[in-house]
Each structure stands twice: as C-alpha cells, then as structure tokens.
C-alpha cells in the first residue's frame, strides 16, 4: 500500500463519495440489528432500508460513549454491541472507563495507513511507535497502519525514556508516532545525553492537542508534525495532510456534527459534538457520539483531497477530559472522594506547563494536613493512572458551578 493508492478515493467527487457511503449504510444497519442485541434494542423500530441519506440518519438515536460505558457494565463485556461472537477477532482491548473493544479484522483494521501517508510516511520508513501496547489499542492501531503502508515498526511503547533514546539513536528511525508531548521529552532527553536523533524528520501525533507553540518548536528542530484524530471504537476518523488546513475526514466513515446532548445536526461551521458512523462488521458503530467538539470547515483542502474537513478538537461536550492521552471522567473524581470520607467536594484543574499537560486536584476538607493530601494524591494516581498535585482547601472554597473537571488549557490559537 502506498500514498498513491489512496488518491483515487481521496480525490473523488464529494457527491460520489456520499452516494457510495449511503448505499452501503442500510446493509450495515440491518446487519448490526440482526447480529447484535444491543443494536437491536438501541435502534428498535428502525427500518434499515429507509436510512439512505443524512436526513434519515439524523432521525436515529445517538449512542454516546458514556452510554456505552454504562451498557457494558450492565451487560459485560461489550454491552450487546458485538455483532456475533469473538471468532476471528485477534485481540480484545480495555480502554480507560473501563470500556472494552474487540479488534476489527483486516490488514489495517483502524484505517490508519491513510493518515500516515498524508503525514509523509512511505514504504521502507522505520516508524518509532511510542503509543502504548498495553491493554489499550493505541500502539496496535498505528502499528497495523504503518505495516500496511510498508513501514518497519519499532514498538517502543511508553516509559523508560533513556532506553527509548538509546534505541532511537542506534536505529535512526525516519519518523515518530505517539502523543504530541512525548516527542519533546525524547528529543530533549537525547539532546541532554548528546545523542543524535536527527533522522526523525516526520511525526504523526494523536491522543492530545498539538498546541501551535509545540508544532513550531518541532518545525524549528526539523520535524514536520501532523496530527490525526482517532478513538478505540472508531479508528482514525480524520487526519492532517501536508496542507495543514484542517483535519480531513477519513474514508469509510460518515461524520456528523450535532448539537451536544441531542441527535440534531448543526449547520456547517457551528461547533457541536462529533458523531461518527463506521462499517466494521464485527463491531459496527452507528451514530456514535464521541463527546468531542468540532466543526465542519468550508471548502476543500488545498492538498486536493475532497472529503469534508474538521476544525480539529475543540473541547469536550461533557466534562470527560483527555490528559496526556488518557481520558479522565467525573465519575473517577467521585471515586476519589468516595475513598476519602474526609473530603467534601473536589475539582480537577487541567493546565499546561513546559509544553506538557498538568493536572491538579483541589479538594474541600475540614483538615488540610500534608499526610491526607499525600494519600489523596496516591488515590488520584491509582484511579486515573496519572500523577496530579493535590491541594486541600476549607469547605465552601470551591465554586458552586457543578464543574468537576475544568480544562484551563488555551485552545484559542489552535490551527483550523
């Protein structure tokens, strides 16, 4: 598979793409309702053959990620949304929540190769993959895509930075895939150790926001960085190309932007929740609400690809927030409170420092002693799998605004 092999579909007339997608949709819905009891319940009363355009699709209910989490708890492990059984599924994953996902079949099961090609990766490249291969699908998602493109992959994973720098200095990879922040950690560590990582000239990042200042820093160090938007349930939904003029929707998925909390699509350009429909047979997703905010950009990309463009990630429709590539949910903060009866109320703040995400928990408590704060910090790490500072404050100190997680990172200068 090469970048040129994608071009016919990437550059087809938009009306042709739309017709092909909606010609496939009725069969996908019929299969989901027949093979998965969860979809049969969720779409009860739907006539699949009638869902042949966007207006008909918009009449269907949205399955939000929070709904899927609750349904999987009621009917583990997949909430009834697995179409058939696990026969043929090479792996099963557990994402934070926890939410379980079976791996789709195919050479490039999450449709990642197109995003890598658009980021400048080509057959024969060595890819330094720093996404986790542990429990979650992130590492495998890009691994399969890179190998389908004809690349060689070093499965670096996360952690043990010194060893990763040593491996990269020896192997001299052509490119990096991972979270936006971690590339800086590796490059800085290599510089401090006097190791040459100048072979890394391109990168595809995901799992967090690529802030303009960080992209500029990478460019100054000779690394062209592009980003893609992906989820465990859906695979790669959209990606940047060399034009860097928005995120181009991937082929084989239908994207809508709806008013948060509803099923109603908003006008192009209006910010709303990103809702996606995919066609995977074993684990179909029909109007899956990601909980992420975005908007449709006008026109087409200057690179010549003709699919719709998104304005990237513009925040969360709910308070579930991605921090260092991991989602943190309000229910997890409630879990921290439940484990410490001394605490009355808590609020998690997310900010940026030294081009990295930083989280801090502010908790109301009658006692503000250091030992209690240390125990709460340990619980916070156990529950979220992330480190965060803990500050204990007197009861009544936190705002009475219903917010459990506050994202204070500045997205105002984010690229379109």
From TrEMBL:
SUPFAM superfamilies: Acetyl-CoA synthetase-like. Pfam families: AMP-binding. It comes from the Bacteria. InterPro entries: AMP-bd_C_sf, AMP-dep_synth/lig_dom, ANL_N_sf. Residues 151-277 form the AMP-dependent synthetase/ligase domain. This is AMP-binding protein. It comes from Pannonibacter tanglangensis.
